[in-house]
Write a structure and sequence with these properties.
Blueprint (H helix, E strand, L loop, with lengths): L14 H14 L4 E5 L3 E6 L2 H13 L4 E6 L4 E6 L4 E7 L2 E2 L3 H30 L1
Antiparallel strand pairs: 1-5, 2-4, 3-4, 5-6
Helix pairs in contact: 2-3
Length: about 130
């Protein structure tokens, strides 16, 4: 869908570049724009129910909050979802709705969420290597 994502990254934010991106977006659209940081998602395919239970256990021990399973004829697909996210309107009618101080808080929180997700993924990966 065109225009669904106006700015996207899997890296940490830097305040000035983020603000510049918001200013550019505000000039280009009069629509309401929301900031949305999605929780991390890890997908794993397993060959057996025993392995699936083991993966679930590792995911929860690693700090992931939600796990789901999809079965197919040949294996189990596990979706492991973290819980860190942000979502709220940030631009409306060509105007950024928040000031620099709040933008700094947003950048800090988004970066903290990203670091938490990376640590969970690393911890999960370490469990899988054992």
């Amino acid at each position: 869908m065109p225009g669904l994502f106006l700015f996207r990254t899997h890296n940490k934010l830097e305040f000035n570049s983020f603000k510049n991106a918001l200013e550019k977006i505000a000039k280009e659209t009069s629509s309401q724009v929301s900031l949305k940081q999605e929780p991390s998602l890890v997908t794993v395919a397993c060959s057996s129910l025993v392995k699936q239970r083991e993966i679930f256990s590792h995911a929860f021990k690693s700090g992931f909050g939600r796990c789901g399973i999809i079965t197919t004829d040949r294996h189990f697909v596990i979706e492991i979802l973290s819980t860190e996210k942000l979502e709220f309107p940030i631009i409306d009618k060509n105007k950024i709705l928040v000031g620099d101080e709040f933008l700094k808080i947003i950048v800090k929180k988004a970066n903290e969420n990203l670091e938490k997700s990376w640590k969970k993924i690393e911890k999960f990966n370490n469990y899988l290597k054992k």
